[in-house]
Each structure stands twice: as C-alpha cells, then as structure tokens.
Specification:
The structure holds two protein chains of two kinds. By secondary structure, chain A is of the alpha+beta class. Chain A contains 14 helices and 14 strands. The longest helix of chain B is centred in the middle third of the chain and has 16 residues, at about 190-205. The chains are: A alpha+beta, B alpha/beta.
C-alpha cells in the first residue's frame, strides 16, 4: 500500500508543480460561475435550474474528462519516454502497482476537483433557489431539487413475442417466404404488434396501469407527477395536440381529470396530480384521451411514467456526481492502458479515438440492426451482405454491448429532471463502468506494461 | 592528499573470496535489438558469461556502445535477453522482491525533475517501504554525504549535471543495498565528487556489498575494481582480476628518496651489468593530477572561498558505513593508512613504456639534494613515520570534514 500511495502522491506532485490542478480547478469554477450568465432559459425558475444543472454538469464532465485523458496518457507515457520509469521499475514495486498507483493518483485528483466543482454547483443552486418567491421555490422543491423515483407500466415483451410469433405463423401458412426475407418479415410484424400497444387512435383513450410497488407505503398525501411524451402521425398547424389525462378508477379510487391540455409532440410533459389516487395494491391507472384527428404514439419505454418523491436532492446530487466519477475512472483506465504501449501523443490520440467510437455507438447500432455494412437493396427490400459482415457484425455487437454498459447511465439528465439516482444505480455504475470496463482496460494495460522492455526508450531531456 | 591516494590505491588488495555467495550469474547472454517488424537491428551483447561474488567491486569496461549499459539493463530486468540466462541473488532479474536488495544509478539523471532532493529520496524510500523515521534519517545522511544538504528544496530539474549525479547516487543507496549497480557514476562529477564516489564504493565493498561499476573511464575502474570485464562489440574481450590483467612480470620499479650522485652511479652500474642501458629508466615520481587538484581545492576551502553549487560531502552515510565504519572518521583514516602496504621502496611494475637512455644531466639533478616538492608527493616510505602519518591524517580529516562544520 505504501508503494501505491507513493506513486499516487507523485501524480499529485506533478499536477501541482505543473499547475495542472490549479488550471483545471480554475476552469471548472469559471464554468460554474460564468455559464449561468450566458444561458438562455424559458423564463421559469424550473427551466433555468434545469438548464443550469445540465450545462454546468456537462461542462464539468467534459473538462474533467479531457484533463483525465490527458493526464493519464501523459503521466505514464512521459515517465517511460523520459526514462524515469527505469529508476522506478528497478525498485521492489510490481508493474501492476505502478499502473494502479498512477490510476489512484489521477482518481484522487479527480475526486477533489469533482467535489470542488460539485459543491460549487450545489451551493449556487441553493443560493439562487432561496432568492425565488415561495411559489417558485415549491415548484423547484417538488420537480427539480428533489430525487424522484419512476414507475412505468410492466413490460409487454412476452406478449409482443407471442403475438409476433402467432402472426408470423399465420402469414407463413398463407404465404410462404424465402429464408432470406424471414428476418425482415418478422421485424415488420413485431413493429406492428408494438404499434398496437403504443398508438392511441383519434377519439380513443388508452389506459396505463402503473404499479408503484413498495413506494405506495410512503406516498400517502404526497403529490405525484405524470410524465408523458408522444409522437404524432401528422403535423398540427399550431404545432401542438390536445389531450386529457385522467387518473384513477371510478368507484375504486379517487379520481382526477386534467383540463384539456395543449401538448407539443416529441417533448416530455410533466403533469402534477393530486395525492392518493392509487388503489390498495398501489396501482395507479392513468388514462390518456386523444381528442385530435390524428393518432398519437406513446413509446413503451418512455411514453408514460409516474414520478414520485423518493429522497432529498443533496444526496441524489452526490450520487449523480458519483456516477460521473465512475466515468472518469474508466477514462483514466483507457488513458493509462494506451500509455503502456504508445508514446504520449499517440496514446492521447488513441484514447480520443475510443471516445469518438463511443459517441458513434448509434451508427454501430444501426449497422447491427441492418445486418451488415452493405447498401440498401431497393429491389429486394433489404441490405446487401458483404463478406466482412460475418466478422464486423459480431465485433460491433460486442463493442456496442460494452459501450452501452457505460452509456446506460445518465446522471446529468436525471439530476436536471429531478429523477432519483438510487444507490443501486451508483453501485451498478461502479461495477459496470469501473470494475468491468475499467478492469478490462486495466488488465490489458498491466499485461502490456509488465512485458514491455522499459529501457528501449531513450531519454528526451 | 597523496597519502589518501595511497590508501585508496591499496584498499582493494585482497582478492575476493572464491567461496563467497554468487550474487550475479550470467550465462550465454545475448541481446539483439529488433525493429518494428522483428528484423535484427543490432547485436548489443553477444554470448557474455561472468559471475560476480559477494563483496566484489566488479567493473564493466569498454568504449561507448560496447554493450556495458545494455548488460546493466539486462541485469536489472529493464531489457529482456534474446538468449542466455541471468540470475541475481538466485532469482530472475524481474523478481520483484529481489529488487529490494539492489541500488541502481543510471547513466543519466532519470529522476523526476519536479521533485526536490528531499522529496526524491522520500519517494524512493517509500518504494522500499521504509518507515518515515528511517526515510528521514537516511535522506538527511545521504544528502549530507553527497553534499546536497544546502539545496534540498531545489527541484532536481534545476540541478547541474554533477548535482543530478549526486542525488542519483543518493537514491541508489536509500535502501542500503546489497548490490549496487553504478552506470558511469563519475560522469559529470568534478574531481572531488569523483573521489568521493570512489571512496564510497570502497566503503560499501568493505561492508560486504557487491558493486558493479560500468564505465569507460579507465582511472575509475582501476582505482576501485577487483575484477573487470572488458567489452568490445558486445563481446567480452578480457576478464579477470585487475592486478593480474595489468601486471608486467618482466619489469620492476624501484622508488627511493633522492640519492647522492655517487650512489646513483653505483646502482646504475650494477643494473647495467645485467640489463642493457636502453631498458633502464630513471625519473622523479610525480603525483597525479587528481591529487594535485584536490590539494588546491583544499587550500581554497581553508581560505573560506564560497561556492553556490554542491558542497563536498565525503562523509559516508552512517547506515552505509555499518558498524565497522561507524567509528570516527579520524580513526578510519588512521586505519587505512596503517593498513598493510607494499613496503618502501615500492617494487612495482612500470605502466609506461621504458625510456631508452639515461640523461646525465637529469641524473645530476636527481642526485642533488632538493627541498620537498609542494604539493607533497606520495612517498610511501614516509607513511611509516608517525609524525608524517599524523600530518597526513590531519590533512585528510580536514578535507573530509564537511564545509561549514
């Protein structure tokens, strides 16, 4: 442990002596204080707070991410290039200890910088909130500066699969199709089945039965919010569509019905509802009435959900910062792994390349969905497969699965919308992002570093 | 000063014990550097074999690019052999625990430029898992020893080359190593620093430490090494105890105080009876430049000249001296001077080519009574005189005493 700490301490010394710490800390504080002056919001305290949280936390993540990559590539690659590593490696310290010590040093630096900027953002938010009128403060407390849990309708995956299979069988009995077209037909049928569950036709309503689970025990007399988002089949002249939200079941629970609401498509809407509208089993029934002349589509994953208070904002904010910290752990591992076998500039370029790959995961997903790299064949109605697809598609699938392990967390979005980030999510982030993904890079990095001949580098000073 | 040289020159008289523990064993060692595509680029070390035993000062000698530093890096596990086998304390050079017994000074200052001297030693002390009090004590003693106790808060990157060598040497000794590997240790050091390093090597060897010295400076190797290997083109060209390698058993040298002309003529006549005139050389012994330089510096120091660089350390760190050397420095010097030495007049083999003729004029001047030369030459016979011994001791003690004490 003494050796690990000594190497971690060295990273601190370098960051302080080269003024990296001061510069990054100043930039972070500048962004926290300066950004609110530049931001334009919708004029409400809620809107301003949401934008403030989103922008400041995004900037902090970006800045810290870049400095983490830079530092992690530099601290190891430079030590090897400048031959300092030769003096360290002949001491009784294993190569994995050197690698881990460097990682710990970077992460302790990140912890301090993240805590510093996080506390600044939190303090700024509370300070501004306290200056608002009481009504605005109440809205903020209920919708933004809060940790809200989320409940959604149960999954319909099994029903969708069963119905898809049934319809496919019927189709095959009536009209046999070639094996090549089988997947495409199945995909189309599946979309049809899903649409039946998602679409609210004109003049119709669609109920969602949302189970609150154990949360019902502490939600007595507490207001909830219905959060919905839809897409429309046609455009509206005004740009919005009407809708009525009804909550509860007649003769079974209390009832609530909203006024006719004017709602924009493809946008999240939060509608406050009174407390205690769920039944004895904790099931809340939400019905949406579509009075428009066009069908509205509520996607299964984010079309309708109920938000309920779950905890305080402070701890939630800390957990959100914790998830960002986990991301930094992964970036540090990527940078250090690259630095074990590449020179500093190439390692930095390599690490940035990985980030670009992560950011283009949608492209990977669409390639996988299309089944290959080939172009769309209009005559056959599918994609032309190329010989490299058998290699590319499994690689893309693997890469996408790994990328999704890190991308499935969205602490900034959660915090800005007042959504809860439970401890379990933070734990999962640590396990998936730091232990699993970071571990993969760490193992690769340590493996290469342990086998590298350190004295082949010539001193550069 | 010359007395010190005499002591130094004679400090390594005993041959290493052949039954002693084998510290390093190298068999069939070959290192071929390859390019990106795996094609051989250079054969830096080629079929090298040697053993180093405990307590030896072992020299790797050779011109630049002969494979010395590559061998050192192979011994340290910084490079991996293409062929052959290396054992250090019975383990592979990559065995982590074994490294706790090794100290290494690289050929350049590969230290962290943003750390100061004190932080550098503390950092490396931590890598050896030394306790805080141990680190503090050793760092103080080492800084004192290498003469950097006045520059402890300056970043290493601001140091001159010589000062960087000094702090490099200090870090190599922070763990009180059993095996010290020094790659060009005197490179960039002033003559005082060179002398101190050589004294240190001898002090370490006296404590049973094994020292490997890689250098192309012949005088360094000659002054301290028991055995050497001489490299050229990656291969060992010669190997053995230094005295055996340098000995010329077919010649002798006689050194005496100045003699009257008649005596000289009688002696020469006697010699000429057996040896032809062109094979006899008569001259005045001179001290070497190192001794003369050290004497000048010592006189300047006594005149209280100031320096902004490294001071003379000279005092070997107490934990490196061990029990034997924990005695007062004056005692140690006396011990050195009183140690068995070749009897005076010295009978030794000439290292320079013999001059062909005897210059009558020179003979005349040599036979005439002369005042003692200043600075004093190393006349071994005088070391037997207790008064002279005391004088030499005082002079040495004052030289070894850190400035400002």
């Amino acid at each position: 442990m003494q050796r690990l700490l000594a190497i971690a301490w060295l990273t601190w010394k370098a960051a302080l002596r080269f003024r990296l710490f001061i510069v990054v800390a100043a930039l972070l504080l500048l962004s926290v204080i300066g950004l609110p002056l530049l931001l334009k919001d919708d004029g409400t305290a809620r809107g301003f707070t949401q934008i403030l949280l989103t922008y400041t936390l995004s900037t902090i993540t970006g800045l810290l991410g870049l400095s983490t990559l830079w530092l992690s590539c530099g601290t190891l690659a430079r030590d090897i290039e400048d031959c300092q590593m030769q003096v360290v490696a002949v001491k009784p310290v294993a190569r994995w200890q050197i690698w881990l010590g460097k990682w710990l040093g970077i992460m302790s630096l990140n912890a301090v910088l993240l805590a510093l900027s996080g506390i600044s953002v939190y303090g700024l938010l509370l300070w501004r909130a306290n200056k608002l009128p009481p009504g605005e403060q109440a809205i903020l407390r209920n919708e933004v500066l809060v940790a809200r849990g989320s409940a959604k309708e149960r999954s319909y995956d099994k029903e969708i699969q069963d119905e898809t299979s049934r319809r496919l069988r019927e189709r095959l009995e009536k009209n046999p199709i070639s094996t090549a077209d089988f997947k495409e037909v199945e995909k189309q049928i599946r979309e049809q089945v899903k649409a039946d569950l998602q679409v609210v036709p004109p003049g119709y309503s669609r109920p969602w039965q949302i189970e609150l689970g154990i949360a019902k025990n502490w939600l007595h007399a507490r207001p909830l919010q219905v959060r919905l988002k839809f897409n429309a089949a046609d455009r509206s002249t005004s740009g919005t569509f009407y809708g009525i939200v009804r909550v509860g079941v007649p003769q079974k629970t209390k009832l609530y019905q909203s006024d006719t609401l004017s709602l924009a498509p493809d946008t999240f809407h939060e509608i406050p509802i009174p407390p205690d509208l769920y039944d004895d089993q904790g099931i809340l029934t939400v019905t949406f009435l579509n009075p428009n002349n066009t069908a509205l589509l509520f996607t299964l994953d984010e079309g309708m959900e109920v938000l309920y208070p779950e905890g305080g904002f402070g701890l939630n904010f800390a957990r959100g910062i914790g998830v960002i910290f986990c991301w930094m752990g992964l970036l540090a591992a990527i940078g250090l792994a690259a630095a074990t076998f590449l020179s500093f500039p190439v390692a930095a370029f390599f690490a940035m390349g990985i980030l670009v790959l992560v950011s283009s995961s949608n492209l990977l997903a669409s390639t996988i969905e299309e089944g290959g790299l080939g172009n769309y064949n209009a005559e056959k109605g599918g994609h032309t497969n190329t010989p490299v697809d058998w290699l590319v598609i499994p690689v893309f699938k693997g890469a996408l699965n790994l990328i999704n392990l890190a991308k499935e967390f969205s602490p900034i979005d959660n915090l800005s919308t007042g959504r809860s980030i439970p401890w379990s999510q933070l734990g999962r982030a640590f396990a998936q992002v730091v232990l699993l993904l970071g571990g993969i890079f760490a193992l690769g990095g340590v493996f290469i570093f342990s086998r590298r001949e350190l004295a082949t580098a010539q001193g550069t000073h | 000063m010359p007395a010190v040289l005499t002591a130094l020159d004679n400090a390594r008289t005993a041959a290493p014990n052949p039954g002693a523990e084998t510290v390093i064993s190298v068999r069939g060692l070959t290192k071929v550097f390859k390019d990106f595509w795996g094609r051989p680029k250079a054969r830096a070390v080629d079929g090298v074999e040697f053993e180093v035993r405990r307590g030896e000062v072992f020299g790797l000698l050779g011109p630049n690019g002969s494979g010395k530093s590559t061998t050192v890096k192979l011994l340290l596990g910084l490079l991996y052999p293409t062929k052959g086998h290396i054992e250090v304390f019975g383990h592979s050079p990559r065995h982590v625990a074994t490294k706790a017994r090794i100290g290494y000074l690289p050929e350049e200052s590969y230290l962290y430029r943003y750390l100061n001297s004190r932080e550098t030693l503390d950092f490396f002390g931590n890598l050896f898992e030394l306790r805080k009090d141990q680190r503090n004590t050793r760092a103080e003693q080492l800084l004192d020893m290498v003469g950097l106790n006045q520059t402890r808060t300056r970043a290493v990157g601001e140091f001159s080359k010589g000062m960087q060598r000094r702090i490099g040497l200090a870090q190599a000794l922070i763990n009180d190593p059993d095996l010290v590997i020094l790659d060009e240790p005197t490179s960039g050091l002033d003559p005082i620093g060179c002398r101190e390093v050589k004294d240190l090597i001898l002090a370490l060897a006296r404590r049973g430490k094994t020292v490997i010295l890689s250098s192309h400076l012949l005088s360094d190797v000659e002054d301290v090494c028991d055995r050497v290997v001489i490299y050229y083109g990656g291969k060992i060209q010669a190997m053995g105890p230094l005295k055996e390698l340098l000995a010329k058993p077919d010649a002798i040298r006689i050194t005496t105080p100045a003699l009257p002309r008649e005596t000289m003529e009688r002696v020469l006549a006697l010699i000429k009876h057996d040896v032809s005139e062109d094979k006899v050389r008569v001259d005045t012994p001179t001290q070497n430049l190192e001794s003369y330089f050290l004497d000048v510096v010592q006189r300047a120091r006594l005149a209280a000249e100031q320096t902004s660089g490294a001071t003379s350390g000279a005092k070997v760190a107490a934990y490196l001296r061990g029990d034997e050397l924990a005695k007062p420095s004056g005692d140690r010097i006396l011990e050195r001077l009183a140690a068995p030495q070749p009897s005076a007049p010295i009978l030794s083999t000439p290292t320079a080519a013999p001059e062909p003729t005897i210059d009558e004029q020179k003979l005349q001047s040599l036979s005439a009574p002369q005042p003692a030369p200043a600075p004093q030459s190393s006349t071994p016979a005088k070391t037997q005189d207790p008064v002279e011994l005391e004088k030499a001791n005082e002079k040495l003690a004052s030289l070894l005493k850190p400035k400002g004490d």
